[in-house]
Amino acid sequence: MKTNMVSTLLLGGLLVACSGKNEKKTTTENQEAIEKTETVIQEDHSLKSKLDAKKANFELKADDTKKRIYKEGIESVNNSGITNTALQVGDQAPNFTLKNALGNPVSLNDYLKKGKVILTWYRGGWCPYCNLTLHELQEELPNFKANDATLIALTPELPDQSMTTAEKNKLEFEVLSDIGNNVAKEYGIVFKLTDEVAEIYNEAFDMNGYNGDKSNELPLAATYIINQNGVIEYAFLDADYRNRAEPSELTTFLEKH
Asked: Which pTM value belongs to this model?
């Protein structure tokens, strides 16, 4: 119910903002809409509610050009069909060995010997949606461990950048640098940004510098649960980077399987 209230507030704000035929939404009204949304968020502790708040703030503050560019960027990913061609439930998860933020090698198979693995990707420490997600995953970590599951996060960022993200979010799980998105490509979740989105990202925070290449490629914010036989049991795949797997729902899945 509270999540629906967030969506209602967002829609209401957009309708007023878009009714420019007669009047424009004032800065004061924008701020009031944001505050109302934040009040609902404080009462709803789900990740989705927090992500919805970010979306609402963006829609109220961003100019029309940026909204169009980002909207077309998401549509491009959706039209590519990547969520259908990526690895799905029932597929064998490719093993990999990557270095963590401390430079130590981490193998998927090594962790699968201990129990199930929750494998998730985030775009980078520059992404506010990713930082919210990482924080919420950290909060849910005790429940993952209680169900004998290990959480591993992959990012295309260079090791120094991933360490900064891990430190900033006080993460207590493995954060691995998937340089060049090599592992993400094996899972079929890599896409190329539109030129306009890539230009904004590189001008705003030097995405290419974060990743150490100029491919302008990113992974979906995908999440998999892999059983000890290396088979994918759960898959969250969404073309919209603002949508993420709900941590509490991952715990529920683990409890039932």
From this structure: 0.84
